[in-house]
Write a structure and sequence with these properties.
113 residues; alpha+beta; 2 domains; 4 strands; rod-shaped
Length: 113
């Protein structure tokens, strides 16, 4: 073979190696960007809808309900004491500031309809 031809082949092989390396680096960079955009290890970012499930219900029943503030502390409590419903509202220090029924001994009138 001609030395000129050998020189051209050596240059083409070196150029081909450079292009392969650049292509591999570009693919790695694109893969990293895709994984970074998807979140940690490709995990789906949580949305508010995943934590609050809205289900149609004709009836909501529980033994007690607690009203929580943005700080996570209870600010109110609706519960049953024996056969009597009780609603308590709490102050900033956690003390009861209002209660229903008040402790007067009165009961609401019964509806006989």
């Amino acid at each position: 073979m001609d030395s000129n031809m050998e020189l051209r082949i050596v240059r083409l092989e070196a150029q081909l190696r450079r292009w392969r390396m650049l292509t591999a680096l570009a693919l790695v960079a694109v893969a990293m960007l895709v994984l970074a955009a998807a979140g940690p290890l490709g995990a789906q970012q949580p949305s508010d809808d995943q934590f609050i499930r809205q289900v149609p219900a004709h009836k909501l029943a529980a033994h007690d309900f607690t009203l929580l503030g943005q700080d996570g502390r209870p600010h109110g409590h609706l519960f049953m004491k024996g056969d009597d419903p009780v609603l308590e509202l709490y102050g900033a220090k956690g003390e009861v500031i209002w209660s229903a029924p008040p402790k007067t001994g009165f009961r609401p009138a019964q509806d006989n309809h």
